[in-house]
Amino acid sequence: MSNTSELLKEIENEARRRFMTVMLKDSFDVLIDTVKTKQPKRILELGTAVGYSGIAMLNASPNARLYTVEYLEERAKEAHENFIKAGVDKRVEQFIASADEVLDNLSGEFDFMFIDAAKSHYEHYFDMLDKHLEHGGVMVFDNVLFRGYVEGKAEYKHRMNTIVTNMRKFIERLKNNENYVTTVLDVGDGLLIAEKK
After folding, report:
1. Is 1's pLDDT higher than 50?
2. Whether pLDDT at 156 is above 80
């Protein structure tokens, strides 16, 4: 495990070389600090990509098990190889399917969830995940400020309208949900942290 940070750097560099999205450093640091503080046992991740955040979360919480969902088979295979390299593959259950397929059949409770999947579906995912999050558990959603568009800090093209409108509605709804303590952080591309009371 001592080489985990080196491996993560390699994964990050390779992903950026191929123009694949990797979590921005500020939001990544907050995510990992939150995992270190909470020390979850069961983590659900929507959006495995190549395993970057999954490896980091498992490294931050040594007793955790990761259940991670990715619909692109090639990425999931690459993530699996990276999990093996990081020595965490025995603590990972991978699902190669759409988030909806997995969530429709999900059972059990989780104490931590990281959502980095289709942005326009965040509210829908929340509705499906809510019953699976333990009290005291945390959901973290990445990219909620979406390049500054959500806060109106940047102009956006008409085709982005649905994503921006849905995200604004989602953030407002979470902030007003009395079952959660919700914080939106202007780090990276925006991070929403919702803790279930």
Report:
1. no
2. no
- Domain range for 191 is 4-196
The full 3-state SS of the chain, as one line of letters, equals: CCCHHHHHHHHHHHHHHCCCCCCCHHHHHHHHHHHHHHCCCEEEEECCCCCHHHHHHHHHCCCCEEEEEECCHHHHHHHHHHHHHHCCHHHEEEEECCHHHHHHCCCCCEEEEEECCCHHHHHHHHHHHHHHEEEEEEEEEECCCHHHCCCCCCCCCHHHHHHHHHHHHHHHHHHCCCCEEEEEECCCCCEEEEEEC
Q: Does 12 or 179 have the greater pLDDT score?
A: 179
C-alpha 50/C-alpha 1 separation (Å) is 18
Percentage, residues of the chain above pLDDT 70? 91
Place of tokens 């956006």: 156
CATH number at residue 146: 3.40.50.150
The chain-wide mean pLDDT, for the chain, equals 90
How many domains, in total, are found in the chain?
1
Residue 108's alpha-carbon distances to 105, 123, 141, 154, in angstroms, are: 10, 21, 20, 41
pLDDT computed for residue 110 by the predictor: 98
Q: How many residues does the chain have?
A: 197
* Residue 162 in this model has a pLDDT that exceeds 80: no
User: Residue 94: how many CB atoms within 10 A of its CB?
Assistant: 20
